[in-house]
Amino acid sequence: MQPILKQDLEVDRVSKRYGAHAAVDTLSFAVAHGSFFSILGPSGCGKTTLLRIVAGFLAPDDGEIRIGGRSMRDVPPNRRPVNMVFQHLALFPMMSVGENVGYGLTRRGVARAELANRVDAMLKRVGLPGAQAKRIDQLSGGQKQRVAIARSLVLEPTLLLLDEPLGALDLKLREHMKIELKQLQADFGTTFVYITHDQSEALVLSDHVAVMNAGRFEQVGTPQELYYRPATPFVAGFVGANNRVAGKAIGVDAGVVAIETAAGLRVQARASGPVATGDAVEAYVRPEVVDLARDANELPHGTQGFSGRVESLLFDGANSAVLVTEASTRAEIRIALPQTGRLADLRVDEPVAFGFDAERAVCFRSG
Amino acid sequence: MATAHLDASAIDRPRVQLGVLLLLAPALLWLVGLIVLPHVELAVLSLRARVAPRVYEWSLDQYATFIDEPLYWHTFVRTAAMSILATVSTLLIAFPVAWYIAKIARGRAKSVLFILCLIPFWVSETVRTLGWMILLRESGVLPRLLADLGITAAPVELLYHDATILVGLVYTSMLFMVVPLVSALETLDDSLIEAAYDLGGNGWSILRQIVIPHAAPGIAAGSIVVFMLTLGNYLTPTLLGGKNSLWFTEQIYTQFITRFNWEQGAAFGFLLLILSTAIVWVGLKVTGQRFGDVMRRA
Question: What is the pTM of this model?
Answer without folding.
Answer: 0.82
